[in-house]
Amino acid sequence: MSVPSVARTLSRSLLQALRGLRSGPGTLRFIEAFNPSQEWGRGRKLKRAQQVELLKMALPPWVLDSGDCLKIAENSGVVENGLELLDEKKVQDLVRVAIAEGANLQEGFESLRMLQHQCWLHKSTSMETTQGLVRVEGTSIEVEIPAVEGPAFCYRISIENVGKNPVKLEGRHWKIFDTQKDEKILLHEIDKGSVGVVGLQPIINPGERFVYASGTELKSGQGQIEGSFQMVEMVDGSKRGFDATVAPIPFRKFKE
Q1: H or E, element range at 199
Q2: Are residues 246 and 136 in contact, defined by beta-carbon separation less than 8 angstroms?
Q3: Which of 32, 14, 1 lies closest to 113 in space, CA to CA?
Q4: Percentages helix, strand, coil for the chain, rounded to the nearest 5?
Q5: Is 181 exposed, middle or buried (0-12, 13-18, 19+ CB in 10 A)?
Q6: What does the CA dihedral 212, 215, 220, 226 come to, rounded to 10 degrees?
Q7: Cα(239)–Cα(245) distance, rounded to whole angstroms?
Q8: Rg value, the chain, Cα
Q9: Which residues, 6+ apart, have CB-to-CB distance to 79 below 8 Å?
Q10: Are 205 and 166 in contact (CB under 8 A)?
């Protein structure tokens, strides 16, 4: 196959992979990667990574050396419902321009692998906003634990205050399911109101985000975790309790 033919195939594959990153009509969203060995059992305040910067990290180096490509990338961000996203058409144009300007095919295929991994992270992520106050996002990845024979998964939870008042995380409620022969089986349940997460009960101010990671083992290679956080909204010296929903976070084995 000639170099131009390979470049065209690469361009089509990149555009196809982008469809797996769709957040809604005409928009894309990258999922922040995380390292379980460094984050498991830890909790901290963390700013959300900018989508344009995540896009740049996924692009081959030669793309950012092009003034036209860099301009498209830096102007591809959009905001919907307070969440930063990417304009799908602009990112598609970026891929087309980059390939047309002469691609380093090896670096291009490395970007394709990164986008395919992003597609998998999308399938392992959920997001839910409760009462316009708290946005909870969860992402899972498979991990290897020497002492555990079966599949194990690490899940990262992001709890973002999108309201106007401080909120405090006081408790949690989890249900962990294993999927066997298309049947969802409850493996573990952590009672509602169990104190905090990773030993913490953080106060999250408006615009702040608290992120932590934990994990579980399964009997099969797939399942899910779902539940809620017991939160308190602090308004002018008074407190109002509410449950922040955690939409089901899938546990799925990664496939190349």
Answers
A1: none
A2: yes
A3: 14
A4: 30, 45, 25
A5: exposed
A6: -50
A7: 19
A8: 20
A9: 85
A10: yes
Is beta strand 167-180 parallel, antiparallel or unpaired with respect to 222-235? Answer: antiparallel
How would you write the pLDDT of the chain (256 residues) with one tens digit per residue?
566 677 788 888 989 999 999 999 999 999 998 899 899 999 999 999 999 999 988 887 777 777 778 888 889 999 998 899 999 999 998 888 777 655 567 777 888 899 999 999 999 999 999 999 999 999 999 998 877 777 899 999 999 999 999 999 999 999 999 998 888 999 999 999 999 999 999 999 999 999 999 999 998 889 999 999 999 999 988 999 999 999 999 999 876 4
Report whether 77 contacts 84 (CB < 8 A).
yes
- How much is the pLDDT for 2? 62
Q: pLDDT value at position 61? A: 76
Cα 107 to Cα 41: distance, rounded to the nearest angstrom: 35
Mention every residue, 6+ apart, whose C-beta is less than 8 A from residue 183. none
Between CA 125 and CA 241 the distance in angstroms is 26
Task: Give the residue from 107, 111, 109 showing the smallest Cα distance to 91.
Answer: 111
DSSP 231: E
What is the rounded distance in angstroms from the CA atom of residue 104 to the CA atom of residue 7? 9
> In whole angstroms, what is the distance from residue 93 CA to residue 108 CA?
15
**CA–CA gap between residue 170 and residue 233 (Å, rounded):** 11
Amino acid residing at 160: E
Give the number of other Cβ atoms within 10 Å of residue 222's Cβ: 16
Q: How many CA atoms lie within 13 A of 159 on its CB side?
A: 29
